[in-house]
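Exam revision sheet. Question 4 asks you to relate a sequence to its structure. Input first:
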Amino acid sequence: MPRTKRFVAVSSAQTLSSTLQLDSAACSSAALEFAHTLFAPMHYTAGYAYPLIVWLHGRGNDERQLQRVMPLISMRNFVAVAPRGLRVSVSDQPEKEGFGWQQADDHIAQAEQRVFEAVEMAGRKLHIAPRRVFLVGFDCGGTMAFRLAMNHPERFAGVVSIDGPFPSGRTPFGKLVSARRLGVFLITGRGSREYPADEVCENLRLFHAAGLSVTLRQYPGGHKLAPQMLADINRWIIDQITPPPSQTAESSDDCLADDCFG
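Answer key, structure tokens:
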């Protein structure tokens, strides 16, 4: 039976600082034909196979977003890699170009290639656990993370979308039987205009009908990355790797999931 876990963060949301330092952790950006960032954890131990986070940035950002989010996810627990998206127009500045991930055939194909090549490169340079690869994305990166995880469920251990709606069209549930084993973590901002509550509910009903097990967490604020969101990604991935003896659905007084099915 599908499970929908839900939790509403009680701390106030705050935006991500762009001045976070990586201390002794290392980032590099060479060895692939497309721009990317590779993150090695503090006190890296070559004998340990690390889980791998593949970070897909949001619209108008780029692979360097990884340098700002990893200190708030974990400096020690993961290897991480972030490929740069494709050129797109910035929504509030049509004349300005940035990078992102669109749900068009060419973007999907290139996203797949970049993600797979980034995973392979990370595995050559650092010791990663090939069955513990997690796709994590924000905004359009979250939507693309959903798309790639559903298209290739055998390649990933789980998927996290931060304020990125589930994609429509192009048969996202073409490998549904395999996709049901994936961990799915959906993070939303309560005041998000880009991913409003009605659309979140629509996605939850779709997940339920498809038999997917989903953890939903809703946070104060709008369409922004917040420190508590990122800290909870660390805890969720650790739970996927070493699940507690008994897992129960988290609940709260503000039950968006209950409203969706009420």
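Marking note for examiners. The domain at 4-261 is CATH 3.40.50.1820 (Rossmann fold).
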